[in-house]
Design a protein that fits this description.
mainly alpha, 0% strand, 132 residues, oxidoreductase activity, acting on single donors with incorporation of molecular oxygen, incorporation of two atoms of oxygen, LipOase_C, single chain, 2 domains, 4 helices
């Protein structure tokens, strides 16, 4: 559970933040209340609701910092450390790595058919931990 939470779950909620770099995808604040009836939104109301330039810039800076990978990032498929020498753990690690590689290959194959590939949960792109 700890391994999942510190790698895959963290990647699921953190990795897609780069899409918030374009403010309308996820405005950090809204300056007007949401509409209460269908069909009453206009372009002018939408523009009035979006945050000002300074808030947008600050939000974009935070998103960039949180979504930038570190130069020394380690990913699930890069697991090379040998903390165990016993046959039992080594066999389990080898099996786990094989399953991760199979999953990564499946994701890559699926993504070839997509206009916008989803790579955030590909084991080749999921970091070992929650490095920031």
């Amino acid at each position: 559970m700890v391994m999942f939470t510190c790698s895959v779950q963290h990647a699921a909620v953190n990795s897609g933040q780069d899409f918030y770099g374009w403010m309308p995808n996820g405005p950090s604040t809204m300056q007007e209340p949401p509409p209460t009836k269908k069909g009453e939104m206009t372009k002018a109301r939408i523009m009035a609701a979006l945050p000002d330039t300074q808030i947008t810039i600050s939000s974009m800076e935070v998103v960039r910092l949180l979504s930038t990978r570190l130069s020394d990032a380690k990913f699930l498929l890069d697991f090379k450390e040998e903390y165990f020498t016993e046959d039992g753990p080594c066999t389990e690690i080898k099996t786990f790595k094989s399953q991760l590689q199979h999953l990564s290959n499946s994701i890559k194959e699926r993504n070839q058919k997509l206009d916008l590939p989803y790579t955030y949960l590909d084991p080749a792109c999921v970091e070992w931990s929650v490095d920031i």
